[in-house]
Amino acid sequence: MVASLVIAGEFGMTLGQREADGKGPGMEPKLMPKLGAAEIAEFLDQVFPQLRGQMVIEEVGPMRARLRMPIDASHLRPGGTVSGPAMFTLADCAFYVATLAMIGREALAVTTSLGINFLRKPVPCDLIGEARILKLGKRLSVGDVMLYSEGDDRPVAHAALTFSIPPWNLG
Amino acid sequence: MVASLVIAGEFGMTLGQREADGKGPGMEPKLMPKLGAAEIAEFLDQVFPQLRGQMVIEEVGPMRARLRMPIDASHLRPGGTVSGPAMFTLADCAFYVATLAMIGREALAVTTSLGINFLRKPVPCDLIGEARILKLGKRLSVGDVMLYSEGDDRPVAHAALTFSIPPWNLG
Amino acid sequence: MVASLVIAGEFGMTLGQREADGKGPGMEPKLMPKLGAAEIAEFLDQVFPQLRGQMVIEEVGPMRARLRMPIDASHLRPGGTVSGPAMFTLADCAFYVATLAMIGREALAVTTSLGINFLRKPVPCDLIGEARILKLGKRLSVGDVMLYSEGDDRPVAHAALTFSIPPWNLG
Amino acid sequence: MVASLVIAGEFGMTLGQREADGKGPGMEPKLMPKLGAAEIAEFLDQVFPQLRGQMVIEEVGPMRARLRMPIDASHLRPGGTVSGPAMFTLADCAFYVATLAMIGREALAVTTSLGINFLRKPVPCDLIGEARILKLGKRLSVGDVMLYSEGDDRPVAHAALTFSIPPWNLG
Questions:
Q1: pLDDT category, A111, cuts 50, 70, 90?
Q2: A76-77 vs A81-82, strand pairing mode
Q3: CA A95 to the chain's CA centroid
Q4: DSSP character for D5?
Q5: Which uninterrupted H or E stretch holds A57?
Q6: B128 or D75, which is more confident?
Q7: In angstroms, rounded to a whole number, what is the distance separating the alpha carbons of residues C81 and C156?
Q8: D70 touches chain A (CB under 8 A)
Q9: D50 to chain C: nearest residue by CA?
Q10: Ordered per-residue pLDDT tens for chain D, 171 residues
Q11: How far apart are CA D110 and CA A148, in angstroms?
Q12: C-alpha span between C31 and D46 (Å, rounded)
């Protein structure tokens, strides 16, 4: 029930946080990623070889990541638009990368829910996914991903995601 | 990432389960509620006194619950329809009751997400919420609630919910 | 705002409806599909050739459809589980078939939102998707899809979908 | 089906749009609100008198709005946190105001779906809702609302909403 919303043992990291670790107001938060784009790309190649070459990690930052999905004929549908599963895959991976960067390589974050609103028809060019973590707890990572066609700043889709972080990663 | 969807230590209870606890096919599952409607009602009166009188627990069963929300003028909107927050409240409480019945009184389940599709205008009579748990894990309870106006079997809204079960309840 | 939830010109078809077209209680509703499984399969082959062979329409009924996705190596992820995009695709297609069956071949229903909760790890066998329409209006089709691994009645995922039905189809 | 995502007759207004109405790059978009905060507040008081005094429209801008919900004892739950229905109400109203500002007073936008992720326990002070429209079509308004406790820039909840805009408003 919402009424008693308290999640135990949370990291206390959320988007926009201005204080952390008991430091006073105005101190910079300790939200630096543990992993960079290259390290995560290498890790993904090992763990998810079937995704190799499908996406490029363009940038990883505190509580966020930007990925690019080069679009070719296999992603297209009649009319030249990008398929729904391709958009789903990019949203899922972008949020995975953002989360992995913060919690580290050993971590196994798994998607528990993904809700996506389709806003407009993507054009047949590269798809960009911008992920941000809104709340990183010990057990859940929650946030959203905005999807764009490259060169157009109008979003084509918006996804809200929740990942579960299994306890064995937190030792 | 969905690709590696394994949630550690799950109870393994889901809707429709026909086997459990290592018993062979055809054995009845061990999915009986730990608490009945009266026990939960008493517990809710203590913990959420502000909800007293707002809802009636009509039935509690394995992985499900049915609640009634008597509708009076305070729930209505112009045109005689039931307000969105009233529907939200009933969905949230119905799933809370279904979950509490299974995990027991000590447990503090908290709503982590609620998505609701509004299907048709409720008429100004009692609202019924039928909750079912689709997956009860050690850390998450996931399911849905169908909302009806009494006497009409066409749903007025459908909600999908995820509750987090804090670890201290699992001792 | 929820408060004034009235959608103009709805068909008035929802799951569970027991009366229709002004007929008295006990009359069968007029909810028969306009298209059968074979007709829809032929239509899909023409319109979405890239999906050919990926799914089998097992059954189409009033406000519902059941599809099967034969699972092969291309759908699998490490550990032998079915990929998230494969589950997304099956949920999307199953609800498309259920909607198309009701509104007819000319219709172009397009996904506006899809929310999916992942419940448990699918085993590496065929995936079944059971779609039901909860509300079929003139402009929106709203419902859900339960996904199963064949031979196991515990759901692996549950999706809630909304499709938009463009006005030109309603002439 | 996502594969053919084209929505007929859309306004073509989305967040971040840089061009509009056939004008060249660099031209300002025609996304100015039709109504200001005071006009909308007056309209709401007439149409939803039961909400009077519950929320303050702090700001209305192109494709966005910010509302404040003064929190008093009636919104609180044990532990001093704000209730789920109060958060639902603020998210719903904030997106309604953002949409109404763009489409005008005569319009009846109705909530078709609302998905909310609860991120952290709100503290017992005023709640702020920041709504943005991601896509404003002729028939749907789609976007999100971030909820904050005043004075804390960490979001307490994030909601994704879809409103239907009935056709009679578009004459």
A1: very high
A2: antiparallel
A3: 1
A4: -
A5: strand A56-61
A6: B128
A7: 11
A8: no
A9: C3
A10: 664 433 333 344 544 443 333 333 433 355 799 999 999 999 999 888 878 889 999 999 999 999 999 988 777 766 677 889 899 999 999 999 999 999 998 667 899 999 999 999 998 899 999 999 999 998 999 999 999 999 999 999 999 999 999 875 443
A11: 27
A12: 40
Do B158 and B151 contact (CB within 8 A), yes or no? no
- CA A166/CA C80 separation, integer angstroms: 19
Of D2, D5, D96, the CB nearest to C1: D96
Query: What is the tens place of the pLDDT at every residue in C36-82?
Result: 999 999 999 988 887 888 999 999 999 999 999 998 877 776 667 78
Of the candidates C1, C105, C44, the one whose C-alpha atom is nearest the C-alpha of residue D95 is C1
By the CB < 8 Å criterion, does B80 face chain D? Answer: no
For B32-84, how does the pLDDT look when each residue is reduced to its tens digit (9 = 90+)?
999 999 999 999 998 888 788 899 999 999 999 999 999 887 777 666 778 89
- 8 Å CB contact of C120 and B5: yes
Q: Which chains touch A (3 or more CB pairs under 8 A)?
A: B, C, D
Best mutation target among A1, A135, A140, A148 (most D Cβ atoms within 10 Å) is A135
**Residue D17 Cα distances to A151, B130, D55, D140, angstroms:** 11, 43, 30, 17
When pLDDT is cut at 50, 70 and 90, the band that residue A71 belongs to is confident
Of D170, B19, A26, nearest to C153 by C-alpha is: B19
DSSP secondary structure letter of residue D42: H
Asked whether B123 and A18 are in contact (CB, 8 A), the reply is: no
**Who among C50, C113, C117 is closest to A112 (CB)?**
C117
What's the gap in Å between the CA of B119 and the closest CA on chain C? 6
Q: Is the pLDDT of residue A18 over 80?
A: no
In angstroms, what is the C-alpha Rg of chain D?
17
Distance from C-alpha of C16 to C-alpha of C38, rounded to nearest angstrom: 25
Which residues from D are below 8 Å from C112, CB to CB?
Answer: 7, 140, 142, 162
Long-range contacts of range C141-145, CB-CB < 8 Å, 24 or more positions apart? C141/C95, C141/C99, C141/C102, C141/C103, C141/C109, C141/C165, C142/B117, C142/B119, C142/B158, C142/D112, C143/C15, C143/C63, C143/C95, C143/C98, C144/B144, C144/B158, C144/B160, C144/C95, C145/C90, C145/C91, C145/C94, C145/C95
Q: Which two tokens stand for residue C47?
A: 């319109």
Tokens (6 digits) for C127: 């995936």
| Contact (CB<8Å) A111/C84 | yes
- Per-residue pLDDT, averaged over B142-150, amounts to 97
Mean pLDDT score of chain A: 82
Chain D closest CA to A145's CA: distance in Å? 12
Query: Are the beta carbons of D110 and B118 separated by less than 8 Å?
Result: yes
Q: Which amino acid is at C151?
A: G
CA atoms within 13 A on the CB side of B78: 11
CA distance A131 to C6: 35
Q: Is A47 on the interface with B (CB under 8 A)?
A: yes
Residue corresponding to tokens 């319109």: C47
Cα(B159)–Cα(B155) distance, rounded to whole angstroms? 11
Average pLDDT for B153-169: 88
Region of residue D134 (left: phi > 0; alpha: psi -120 to 50; beta: else): alpha
Instruction: Give A106's DSSP letter.
Output: T
